[in-house]
Structures are given as structure tokens and as C-alpha cells.
Amino acid sequence: MSIKKTYEEINEKIRSGKAVVLTAEEVSAMAKELSPAEIVKKVDVVTTATFGAMCSSGAFINFGHADPPIRMEKIRLNGVPVYEGLAAVDTYIGATACDPDNPKYGGAHVIQDLVDGKELELEAWGKGTDCYPRKYIRTKISKETVNEMFLFNPRNAYQNYNVAVNTTDKIKYTYMGTLLPNLRNATYSTSGELSPLLNDPEFRTIGLGTRIFLGGTEGYVVWPGTQFNTSKPKNEFGVPVSNSATIAVIGDLKQMSSEYLRAAYYEKYGVSLFVGIGIPVPVLDEDMARRLSIRNEQIETTVLDYGSEGTPALGRVNYEQLRSGAIKVNGKKVRTAPVSSLEKARKIAGLLKEKIQKGEFEITKPVMRFPSNTSLKGLKETGGEA
Amino acid sequence: MRKKRYILKFPAQSGDKPLSYHLVKDYDIRINILKAEVWPGKTGSLLLELEGTAENLKKGIAWLEANQVTCEPIDKKIRWNHQQCINCGNCTAVCFSGALTMDSNWELTFNPEKCIVCELCVPACPLNLFEIDFRE
Question: Looking at the keywords, is Methyltransferase present (chain B) (predicted)?
């Protein structure tokens, strides 16, 4: 009879300080010696983590009302355009937003400055209404002066991501870093066997309401992320071999730290935000133990040529090969480099492990499971003059 | 003994002269070629690290310049803001001289000895943590 554990049983152990918690890397190492049946007996919770640039991120803020009040219909924060279509004094700062005249400072930098407690210049314009007569305001704000500010990221923590190379004879500047010509380098992004969604590929435990580590504090998974795609091909170990599912996450920005949330600018691409995410995965049964045992050499991903139109696939490699420093592409040895921080991801997985061991962080059963039959639509063009 | 880096630029007609031979043979200078862009019949450039006595280096450079080779000393260095680094690895993707590498703990290490100041890391760092330092 194989062991099955409930969320409540595991939480009871967490509360009494008896839960056995390992990081996903530790459990992958353990799996070389022990079977899933033995792992489910020994381990209660496994922590996973990632720290990478996640462009689809942003934050909601409520500034509070001035006297006389203004209905903000155009808003700038340190010169960065932020969303003006949310009532009078609410806004959403998109991480990738920027003033084209100052492309190296964008929404992600605004978010980081707020987290760091800096004062920012707010400038807003309105047409003036009977209930909001003011037409212009210029003032300073900080995390101390605003009402709410919370991070809400529509698409984070991609379940696997492709490797980027460039076969052309020109350097390519991308969100996957600087790609040297003629296959002189290859970049990869996820934290492999430590990556959250690769450790629960069928979303048995990660779903709506899952409590997570987000940007240095507690956050929640609130929806399947945008471009949530469950129909990508999977390998024999049950993991998709290219970017597939994602999660939407939320958390209190006032409690976050720039240690785990960092603004970035990619040359000739634009602004993005490094986001630190950690997700605890309960070892409910043998099946979950088997999923969590996945090792770098079993996680494969697709090599794409970012230099050519349509980013054609050039082959498949695994994370053990990627981390070795070189892979083979088109018969040629190509040097590899990561573009997300494994060092930070390990730190997050370790922190989360410690919190759970101390009884400070309990696991949550999803309120709703995520869909298992989604695919992606492209954008059709209906014609017409540009 | 002194070690100094120079960018050598030479005209089309001097491409066939055994420059390094003379530097070694006549001035006892040790040469380390860090980067070379040489096309026969066209202008070319070399990034060299020259090691020798101060006097020999001076004479060797004077000889090169007498042969229409311009020698630009490189007093530039790359400065890395280590404190702010998140160890993402983006800079290692472009560092073909192997000065920037990830260590066994996946933390970035910078070995200035290997740096040829190609400056590719400057725009490659998403956190803008590399600067060119012009001081000697």
C-alpha cells in the first residue's frame, strides 16, 4: 500500500516543526539512491525556485486623492508613462513601460525605486470635471505616501524555456542576452531541476491560491499565466521540451526587497524585471515524488535560432549539457551561458525551506486546478492600410 | 620588466612585414596576441600585450611607429560593480576571452588578467554594472 498524505497532515507536521523539507536539487540528488516510494515516506515538502527576467510583470498603485482632487488621465512616474485608464488615482506600472527618449529607465526601475523606499516624481493631467476639478498635479510619492501597492504579474515562471543561438553573421540583441554571430554562444534561462513548474508539470499542487515566495515576501498564484500552453510536446519524463505553462502571481510590493526584485535593461531590446519566485510542492504521494525527482539530464529543451525569421528549431539539449559549459548545435561546439540566476534561485529555495521548517510557512491546497487542454492562438491580420 | 597592452593599427602595405619577429629578436619583447584582425592587402589591427624592460618597450614602439604602425596604449580597464551583481550570467555569454565566468556555486568571477577590454560586457549586463575605467 503506497503512502498518501493530505495537505492538512503535512501542515500539521509543519506546525509542530516535524516536517521534512528539502530543496528540489536535494531531492533530485536523493533520487539517485531512493525510489519515489521511499522518497514519499521520507520527505514532506520540496522547495523550488527561479530568479529570472520576467517581462510580463507590473504593479498596481493607489496614490490617494489630492485636494482639490484630479481624475488622472495621463500619468508619469519619474517620466515613465503608466496606465491612466483606472478610475481617478489608481494606476498600473507595466515593467516594460518607458519613455522612448529615455529607454534605459522604465517601469521596472520605477518598481525597484519604490521598493527601495525612494521618492519618485508623480506628474498627472486631467481634463477637469465637476467632481474632479483639478487639471494638473506634480508631487513626490514613495511607498510611505501611497495607499496600496501590489505586484501583479500576468505571466511568470515559465515552465521550461528555449535555448537561444544566432546563426547569422550579425550580433543579435535579445531578451535572451547578446547573441554572438555564427553560433559563438548559446543562452538558456530556467533553473532546471530547481524550476517550480518543471517539478509539478501536471499542476497537481500548484493552482489558484497557492502560497508562494514572491520578491522577498509571501505571494500567491492567482490564475494560469498568459500564454498558458499545455499542449507542447513532452519528453519521456513528462516535461515539456519548450516553453509551455506559466503562472500569474500577486503579492504586497511594500513588503518586497530589491534583493529579489531587480530592474533590468537589455541593450536594443528594452526594460524587464528580474523576479524571484519560490514555490513549495507537497509530496502527496508516489507520483509527486517521482515528478520532484526529475534531474537536469532528464529535462530537455529546444535550441532556437533567434537570428533567423520564424526562430527555427536546431535541436534538443538537456540542462546537464547546458550547465557543462558547451552544447553541440549543427555539429558545432557552442559555448553556453545562463541568463537567469541559479545562485539567487538556490538562495530562495533555501530560504523557503527554512521558513517551512520553522513553521512560518504553510502549504495551500489549490482552490481551483488549472486547465490541462490549452493551446496558443497567433494574431491574425485582417488587412487594411498601415 | 613591464607589461603593457597596445592596439596596433597598420597600413595595407605593412601587412607582410614580420613585425613580431623584430620585436622579439631586436628588442627582447615577449608578445601575447590577444586579438587580431588582419586581412592581406587591407589595413589591420592587433591587440597585443607586450612584456619587456621599459627601455626596450620604448624602443620597440618607436621602431613600429617608424614603420607606419600606430601604437595606441590601452590604459582602459573594466570595472565591475560586484556588490550589485545578481549572478545572472548574461556577461559570460559575450566574454570570449574567459575573464568573466561562473564559478562552481554559479557566482560570477572576474579575472582582470584575462580581460582584453573588448567592452562587450558593458552593454550585455542588464543591470549596467560594468564601466570602463580610463585611469592607469
Answer: no
